[in-house]
Amino acid sequence: MDRRKALQKTGLFAGATILMPSMLSLFESCKTETRLDWKPLYFTDVEAKTISKLVDIILPRTDTPGALDVKSDIFIDKVIAKTYDKEGQDSFRAAIAAFNENCKENYDDIFINLNTEDSIKVLKEAEKISGKFGSGVWGAAVGPQESIGFYRSMKSMAIWAFMTSEEIGKNVLSYDPIPGKYVPCKPLSEVGNKWSLG
């Protein structure tokens, strides 16, 4: 399998696995990790710092928590370590290396050593050249799919990890573990915030 196909499967994987209970248990285990004693299961030190910086730029802390606050990078590390086969892990590692090599060619250093302005330029350029996700149903591709590449795959995983975290689900999105009555034709203006349950 070539790297392009592996990365495409990575993106499709993010949608397909959201329903798997094992993914929820992985995210639950991230809550107990702290920033100071986090030891990556899959990433090398440089790779872990690369992913942490990348998700922090994509989802920074504002008036709501950022990706690092909900430990999206730790979750991504655990997903790759525990659900990817050797071929998928090797492809992912090659994609990170290619991403850093591109940074070296264009900005004379790897991603984690770039200043904020250059880091944002790198991600904007990656956004422009990345393929888009095609149509899908329950995580399965429908019709021809573009190769999404490393950046779009990481962005998708970061958003997925962020939106499915307990912190965001309970404290940012509307949360009602016991929903009320069914209202089939409620105007969108009355719905308000997006709901994490219900």
Protein model, in words:
The chain is an all-alpha fold and 198 residues long. 56% of the residues lie in helices and 2% in strands. The chain has nine helices and two strands. It has helices spanning 3-16, 21-30, 45-58, 72-83, 86-107, 116-129, 149-163, 166-171, 188-191, and strands at 136-137, 140-141. Strands 1-2 form a two-stranded antiparallel ribbon. A hairpin with a 2-residue loop joins strand 1 (136-137) and strand 2. The protein is globular and about 55 Å long. The termini are far apart. The relative contact order is 0.17.
Hey, roughly how much beta strand do the residues contain? under 5%
Q: Give the terminus-to-terminus CA distance.
A: 40 Å
**Beta strand count:** 2
Number of helices: 9
Return Rg in Å: 18 Å
| Major sheet strand order | 1-2
Largest sheet, strands/sense/barrel: 2 strands, antiparallel
Averaged pLDDT, please? 80
Percentage of residues in helical conformation: 55-70%
- Structural shape: globular
By secondary-structure content and strand pairing, the structural class works out as mainly alpha
Identify low-pLDDT runs: 10-21, 32-36
Order of helices and strands: HHHHHHEEHHH
